Structure formats: C-alpha cells, structure tokens
Amino acid sequence: MRPIAENLQEIKGRIAQASARVGRNPTEIQMIAVTKYVGVERMREALSAGLTHFGESRAKDAKAKMEELSDPAITWHFIGHLQTNKVKEVLPSFAFIHSLDRSSLAVGLAKEAERLGIIPNCFIQVNVSGEESKFGIGPDKLLSFARQVRDIGNIRVVGLMTMAPNTREEGIIRPVFRRLRELQQELLDLGLERISPHFLSMGMSNDYEIAVEEGATHLRIGTALVGR
Ligand SMILES: *Cc1c(COP(=O)(O)O)cnc(C)c1O
Fold this sequence. Notes:
The protein is 43% helix and 18% strand. By secondary structure, it is an alpha/beta fold. It has an eight-stranded parallel beta sheet. Strand 4, helix 5 (103-116) and strand 5 form a beta-alpha-beta unit. The radius of gyration is 17 Å and the shape is globular. The protein binds pyridoxal-5'-phosphate.
C-alpha cells in the first residue's frame, strides 16, 4: 500500500487547486480520514502523517480502535448509519455524528446526552439524490425535521451531510452538492435555536474536489487516503 503521507500530499494539492478555482481558503476545510476499512497500524501511520480526524461507521469496531489508540489528539467522527440502540456506544466518545436522519434517533441522542450532561454535535444527513439505497432525510422534509430536532432539544446541529451517487459523472455529482448548500442556506435563514448548520460534510475519495468547489467544509476520505 502506498504510504499515507504520499496520498495525503497529493490530496492536499488537489484540495488547494480546487479551492483556488473558486476562491476558497483551503485551511477552512477539515479532512476526515475514514478508517473503517483499515486497522490500528494504518491509523498510527495516519497519525504520524499528521491526520487527527478519524471517521468510523461501526460503533463496535470504533470502540476497539479507540481503546487501542487512546490518543486524546484524535477527534472521532461517526459517519455510518446509527441505530438508536447504539447511541450509548457513540456518546460521548464521538465528537461529531454525521448521520442524524430521523426523530427517533434525535430522541435517543437527546436522552443519552442529557444523562451525560453534554450537547452532541450532529450533522443532519440528507438524501439529496433520492436513491433508495441511501439513508437520510428527504430534502422536502428537512426544515420540518430541523424544527423537530430543535423541539427535542439537547442536540446541536452543526451542519448537513450527504453522499453523492457512486459515479464518475460530474454532471450527476455536482448538483447534489450544490443542492445541499442551498438547503443549508434555507435552514440558516430559519434561525432556529441550536440549529446552526455552518458545516457541509460532503465529498469522498471519488468526488472531493467537486465537493470543495461546492462549499464542503468536511471531506470524508477513505480509500484514496488510507486505502482499504
Ligand atoms: C466509507 C465512507 C466514506 C469514505 O469512502 P471512500 O470512497 O473510501 O473515500 C465516506 N463517507 C461515508 C458515509 C462512508 O460510509
């Protein structure tokens, strides 16, 4: 496998170029190394290369890795589908949850958060592309869902998350990211308490440059960065 430092250097270069094309400052973009496919050895290598934000999609696997690495410098992002009965496994160890997509989960998170005396940072996952295989709230239901989350309380919505269809076709990917940004603006305009979606979690190995051009603040990159 190619050294992570080399992958990182190449990806950083591409992010810088994509940022320059649209007049963005690349330092405002957070790279999350998606480590769900790799073990702790490779994660140690990622740490040595300077990566400190890790994304995992299974609570159990992540817990084991957290215990082995136990490095306070790491910020953990939960990026997978979250079952309500797994909430206790992700709070408080994950600093960010990228997959808030239904009110039953919001209720579960809020309850556990209250018990712990914390307010978790969540991204609302939006199924912009409408693919049946994807999780996420429908774009037409986002604003009413956000009001529900506000009413449930004890949750801070820091951003929106989406996944583009698995394709190389820019003409399919770009409108998905652009729509998420429009939805972000609609939600910001509502000005709901604790609903401050200033972040956009979008862009993976195949499409992160398009995501940067469309305003992503958090890139979730696995294969191209740490391999699989
Ligand atoms: C696996 C995964 C990624 C990373 O995918 P790559 O194509 O390997 O970069 C990003 N986001 C989510 C939600 C994932 O499940």
